[in-house]
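Structure request: YceI family protein, Amycolatopsis thermalba.
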Amino acid sequence: MFRRLRRRDGRQGEPVTFAAGAGLVSVRLRDELGNPLAGAEMTLRHKRGPRVFRAVSDDYGLAVVTAATGTYQVTISAGGYREVTHTVDVASGDHTALGEVELRPDASVRLPGPGRWVIDPDHTSIRFVARHIGLSRVHGRFTRFHGSINVGERIENSSIEVVIDAASIDTAAEKRDEHLRSPDFLDVDRFPKIHFFSDRAQRVAGDRWHIDGTLNLRGASRGVRLDASYLGLRSWNGDRLGAIAKAELHREDFTINWQQTLAKGLVVVGSTIELRLDVQAVRGV
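Returned structure:
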């Protein structure tokens, strides 16, 4: 049994095969401006059982999931937007199309007011992940850093500055950390500080932002884009804002060219580093 999903140009696409006793649910999501909304999650929860099915919308805002037959509550959510719920009956071999759904901004998520916000190092983490011999991931962090966020009258005109003590790298392995501090990698004696500065922020959709800046690492300055999500404001020992962000760095861009290979050319340390940030900042301290 199969059905055809229609393509964006209105023509029929490739046939979709259904498993026995299953059906298809689809939705096309748009933001408040009518643009396709990528990265939103559609969750189907069975009304009378533990079954849960999920799908994430693609760059065209399309989310498609195959689910076992039954009645489901459908929840559509995305950071910075109000949830939308539906109830659907999934029939064997059938396609239930929810059509186009527009998500509206969540007004309860307030942006920070203008002024200086100081990063709280006790509630902020700067972490990274690197691939090791193509099998596992090595997780590390920097334990000493400081920084601030200067929020402008227009949020897009805000600036961010972070300074990291390169010698504070910590991967929970002393010998490895000593090697990472050496000239093969960070060369902390010559380049004791890692510096990031940005004065360009652009809202993508909902709580998602692109923060473009310059990272100076080991004496080399390169442009870096942070994919950030704004988490909102809270009051606890002062007014606080929260955000998470990630970026992908390439060692060679910063002249970190040390390499060792195993059999068949397998490298010990991968060239791509994933950077992950969890940030809390306190206003006016």
